[in-house]
Amino acid sequence: MIKLIQTTALASAMILSAGAALAEYPEKPIEVIVGYSAGGGTDVMARTTMPFIEKYLGNGASIVVKNMPGASGQIGVTKAATSAPDGYTLGTFNLPGMMARTIDRKADYSADSFTYLANVVNDPNVIVTSKSTGLDTLEKLLAKAKEEPGAVTVGMSSLGGDDHFALIKLQNQTKTEFTIVPFKGSAPARTAVMGGHVMMGIFNVSEVAKFEGELNILGVAQAERSEFAPDVPTFKEQGIDLINGSMRGVIAPKGLPKDVEEKLINAFKQAAKDPEFIKAMNATANPVEMVTGDDFKALTSELYDLAKGVWETTPWK
Amino acid sequence: MSKSHSPRLLRPETLTALGTIVVAAAFLFPTASLKPISALLPGAMLIGMALLSVLLLISDQRKAGSGEEAQSMTSAPKRVFGAFLLIVSYALSTDFIGFYVSTAVAIPLVAYVFGYRSLPGLALATVIVVGAIYLIFDFGMAQTFPSGRLWQS
Amino acid sequence: MYADLLDALPHVLGIYNFVALVIGVIAGIVVGAMPGLSATMAISVLVPFTFGLEPLVALGLMAGIYNGAMYGGAIPAVLLRIPGTPAAVATTFDGYPMAQKGEGGFALQVAVVSSAIGGIASAFALMLLAPPLSKVTLLFGPSEVFWVAVFGLASIIFLLGGNPIKGLISACFGVFVSVVGADPISGADRYTFDQLELLDGVSIVILLVGLYALPPVIDLLEVPLKTDQVTDNKLGTEPIWRTLPRMFRFWKTWIRSSLFGIWIGILPGAGGSMAAFMSYNEARRASQTPDTWGNGEPEGVAASETANNADTASALIPALTLGIPGTAVAAVMLGGLLIHGLQPGPMLFRESPTIVFGFMWQFLFGAILLILLGGSLATNSFAKLLNLPRPLLGSVIIVLMLIGVYSINGRMFDVYLMLGFGAIGYVMDKLKFPLPPVVLGLILGSYAEENLRLALRIGRGDWTILFANTTSLVLVALTVAVIFGPSVKRRFFAKRDDEETAKK
């Protein structure tokens, strides 16, 4: 009975939404589901970005951020994936996490459940060492790791996240072996590196930019140097092809009407050119790298393959 | 429960001990499928609970053997059960019908059923509580409560 | 740095910022005093709302709520034996017996004065010693934190109550509940039965509301009488300046509990409840008359309330300097800082001194305001509120429980979970299983496990890493002293008594 009511309601909602799409989108408030609690990195990204999207959507658009925290964002993204594709429910999307979760546990969504709007933030990984270790260059660090495999302990925020994949890439490229110490979140891991309890750490550049004086930052995993730490060389400069990071973007459920999709993507593209937006994002530790539409989709499947590959060779649980 | 002749196995403590043993044992099944390092602490706690419950069971049965009266759970089991049932149905109706409707019904209903019969008092309390919640949470901080799964797509 | 501190003062005293603080303290007392609502929930509801506010207004609200709620939790703890916040559990031990003896008013006055003292001490620690104290936090790596958790767990043996078997079952239950969710190291699901809502584990607020609020509510409904009136003469309300001199004898407890609270606050993850439990135990051990404890000893209320307020500001020391919150509430507040672009770290103090130091002043003023606002106004009006007819009070608390639990994550799942714990809690309560070991087990169980496993990973499987440095060894010694101290002392005294009788 309930099922029947729900299906009918859903069907009528879809008919209505098709009609709505023909009219001027948006006609009512748009909800963005954030899978983390208010004040987290993803939440701040959404709250900072959305006023600019409102501005470029025009038409008196209003966007409301709704937090549905839990299970590392999985509850929120599942909700977004299964909402009506009318353009009035969007969701935040984290890479590689959201794809890795489809591999390491049962998930009610897959890479095909979404209309990809825009990846907004790319926060590259950095490798840091504790001041007390004296390993203040990448060369010294790798030498130490080669000399005694497993002797270097690496603090990171969790297994199966971007930090973990960065380390796997590093190990594969340099034929080294490290001991992983997965903390609960990056702040405790960073504290453990500062206190010298672990020797090395893998984080994102925004997480260590404010701690430059207390840590040795050895390299940043991006094609070019990061604005957040312009003195830190990239790994490329040091002869290692290591590019990896944590990404945060915005998706909609799959099957979004084409014109709505275009309108939203355009708004993101325009925002990316707005210096005010870049400034606001940098102030909240969100390095902007806008990737929209199909490119975002390609990026997602690339990261899915990476996670899948790592899982098949070294499953983390 | 009759005073002197409550059967030995139906003493509340004995029942609780038995229940704990059964539940702890049941949870050991999912424990077995975990990696040893993950299973260590929960496994130890479950086994600990089961063993301690056995001790509790023995001591309670000894008391029963020596004719000691079991402590009774409640003087009014019907009221306790009814109260719990009402609370659960309030939660369910919040989930399915919606928060405000359910709350506006639940406050006077529970208070009335359990002996507060002043109608103006009930009405006043309901209006104050529901109104305050709406003003502070919904109006003041844009915090939404369940609007009822039945009405949603 | 101290010049920055003074520069920030005028900003805090600005009219909007100050009004925000006052509103925050009042709101905090109310939230703390309502069974079912907690500071964690209030601040998490508030955080998104503060996005549009001036930073100091937003932070003033939060600082006020935090301070207010830590005291507010004592009000129902004393009057109804329902701790309003997790940290007020230890306040019920002596506060409720006091209320039954007709000293409820005095208990609340002790609570408010002690809360303010703890809060002031903590605010000074934050203002004057934040950078050096954050160095203390750095000393505590996984193996040291593991020993802190063991030290806390050891204090469970004093909470077992009359029947140690039941006490231990309670503790095992608490620890078991703590492991539900994703395994802290590998992320493997433990007892989640494919429910995403369980992956992050069981929130302390859910367990607390279920175990501590539901059984008394059912009691309220079970006995169809009018309230045994919380009248003025039962409360024994006297003006606070007249009762104040009777409190001065607690000065040692105030100092000891403040230090405990500050210390627990700067350690990540443990939080106010642990501070209150531990300082209660220590105060009882130091007491000349340990037998009166648990039967309405005002010093017990002082110990618990001083400590749970003393960790408020100090919990922000690691939060501001290192980004690791010392308590659950501080974690939510950290979100409130991030929303305003205030990123924790050593740079924070240089980049936004006005806001950071202003925030610290707000903690100090919040603690002072507690006496003014909590002492007379709030306490008396709440005591009257609890005077409502029992069935009505019960039904209102049921509604508060639902919104308090629902609002943490905005989902009904948590409400059902809370009702499940409520059913368990009712049986435990009636069969006299002690509840505090469950709370402590939940807080410290997985916390100890996580840190032990991290330490072993760091040591690559070598157990000696647990004893590898002085900090760990000191903590081990303390734990041993806590566990075996009392029995050694007893044996020693017993021997002397024997000798004395022999002489006679």
- Which quaternary structure do these chains form? heterotrimer
H/I helix tally of chain B: 5
Please tell me what the overall shape of chain C is.
Answer: globular
The main β sheet of chain B shows up as: none
What portion of the residues of chain B fall into strands of 2 or more residues? under 5%
Order of helices and strands of chain C: HHHHHHHHHEEHHHHHHHHHHHHHH
Average pLDDT score of chain B: 87
**What class, by secondary structure content of chain B?**
mainly alpha
Helix content of chain C: over 70%
- What structural class do helix, strand and pairing data of chain C support? mainly alpha
Residue runs with pLDDT of under 50 for 5 or more positions of chain B: none
What is the helix fraction of residues of chain B, given as a range?
Answer: over 70%
Structural features, described:
The complex is a heterotrimer of chains A (317), B (153) and C (504). Chain A is α/β, with parallel strands linked by helices. Chain A folds into 2 domains: 2-122 and 245-313, D-Maltodextrin-Binding Protein, domain 2 (3-Layer(aba) Sandwich), CATH 3.40.190; 123-238, 3-Layer(aba) Sandwich (D-Maltodextrin-Binding Protein, domain 2), CATH 3.40.190. Chain A has 11 helices and 10 strands. In chain A, strands 1, 2, 3, 4, 5, 6, 7, 8, 9 and 10 form a 10-stranded mixed sheet that branches. In chain A, helix 6 links the parallel strand 5 and strand 6 (179-182). The radius of gyration of chain A is 21 Å and the shape is globular. Chain B is mainly α and 153 residues long. Helix content of chain B is 71%, strand content 0%. Chain B has helices at residues 12-32, 36-65, 77-96, 99-113, 119-141. Chain B starts with 11 loop residues before the first helix and ends in a 12-residue tail after the last helix. A two-stranded antiparallel sheet of chain C has the order 1-2. Chain C has one domain (2-386, 409-468). In chain C, helix 4 runs antiparallel to helix 15, helix 4 (55-72) runs antiparallel to helix 17 (328-339) and helix 10 (204-222) crosses helix 21. Chain C has 504 residues and is mainly α. The model of chain C is unreliable at 229-233 (pLDDT under 50). At the A-C interface, helix 2, helix 3, strand 6 and helix 7 of A face helix 3, helix 7, helix 17 and helix 22 of C.
